[in-house]
Amino acid sequence: MNPVSELKRGIWTENAVLKLGLGLCPALATSSSVENGIGMGVAATFVLICSNVVISAMRKIIPSKVRIPAFIVIIASFVTVVDLVMAGFLPDLHKALGIFIPLIVVNCIILGRAEAYASKNAVLSSAVDGIVMGIGFTVALVAIASVREILGNGSFFGINILGSGFIPMLLMILPPGAFLAIAFLLAGMNQVSAEK
Amino acid sequence: MKEISRLALILTLITAGSALLLAMVEKATREPIAQQRRLVTLGALKAVLPPANNSPDQDTVSLVTGKDSKGNDEQTTFYRGRKDGAVSGVAFRVVAPDGYSGSIAVMVGIEPNGQVSGVAILQHAETPGLGALIEGESWKNQFKGKSLDNADWRVKKDGGHFDQITAATISPRAVVGAIRKGLEFYKANKDQIIGG
């Protein structure tokens, strides 16, 4: 297991959002600013790592007939932990992400990794899988959010970079802008992959 | 039968473990979350009340202000700011049910003579860049010093005194209407609110 190739797998070749098309709903909804994108990415990564580790550690005692309810219970517990901790210590981010924190439970990236990877592999490699997949999700969110925030608000990470003469394209921070940004990102990535 | 009881036992153990984890996290975050809620309320109270040197969130009176959709009484909490013992202002939450996307919750501060001392938007889901401009300082400041006697509580487009926002009349109209209702309630129940 080579960390560099694992990282490349998470960010590029098997990027959950941009290559596999998983977790599109939170990726579209919480990418209106870079700050929200990072917050969502970190929250989902935390849940992903924890659930991968626990599920992998318990993979021999969870009977395959009840594995899905068992996975969901484990994932939901970690999501609730994130929800409570964020409400207590990062109230602004918690308010901005709102309903999308509890909805990490049904983020198909997390259940997908549990089913496809953690339930079949050892604890350490499941943890690495959680980390790289989480980084890939965060990178995808930040990429979408950068496009949307720069065009839609003239700022990056809340800092105005395009000056007051720039008239923001409001559409980009509204829901349609998420679809436009992700469509162009996907097209660009497919172009780069095709050229290789 | 043996198989199903084994499945049930394992699922029960997993859920019990999750419950234990959640109970511990809930206990650890209960205080910080309550503290954050209190800070949010206090921040809004400080923004809308005239200078006070008590803790307005400790000096409250609750009155029935209406009926909800099920016909139950709806309570509103009135927070009293005091300067050296005398009531310097009263703040309370009004809800505009007719925002462009959902309800808008507003904290209104009123001086004892019925003039608005400040307005803060607590919660809304209006369109970013349009309806959401109701959060802007210059828009909120137009309410300062206005009362039922010296202003017509409608937006200018409807013949009143208050600025609407270009391309977003619905949100300002909802907020102005909600504040007017709040002022009317205050006027009718002033003795109970200040004296109680």
Instruction: Give the integer mean of the pLDDT values of chain A.
Output: 89
Write down the domain tally of chain A: 1
Computed CA radius of gyration of chain B, to the nearest angstrom:
22 Å
Low-confidence stretches of chain A: none
Based on CA inertia axes, which overall geometry of chain A fits?
A: globular
Q: How many H/I helices of chain B?
A: 4
Q: What's the total count of β strands of chain B?
A: 5
Largest sheet of chain B: 5 strands, antiparallel
Note down, in words, how this protein is organized.
The complex is a heterodimer of chains A (196) and B (196). Chain A has 196 residues and is mainly alpha-helical. Chain A has one domain. Chain A is 68% helix and 2% strand. Chain A has 8 helices and 2 strands; from the N terminus they run H-H-H-H-H-H-H-E-E-H. Chain A has helices at residues 3-13, 24-29, 34-57, 67-89, 91-97, 108-118, 123-153, 175-195; strands spanning 155-156, 159-160. Chain A has a two-stranded antiparallel ribbon. The two termini of chain A are 24 Å apart. In chain A, 42% of the residues are buried. With 196 residues, chain B is α+β, with helices and mostly antiparallel strands. Chain B has one domain. In chain B, 39% of the residues lie in helices and 26% in strands. Chain B is built from 4 helices and 5 strands; from the N terminus they run αβββββααα. Chain B has helices at residues 2-48, 137-141, 170-188, 190-195, and strands at 60-67, 73-83, 86-99, 102-110, 116-123. Chain B starts with a helix and ends with a helix. Chain A binds chain B through residues 32, 58, 61-63, 65-66, 69-70, 73-74, 76-77, 80-81, 84-85, 87-89, 91, 168, 170, 173-174, and chain B through 6-7, 10-11, 14-15, 18, 21-22, 25-26, 29, 31-33, 35-36, 39-40, 127-130.
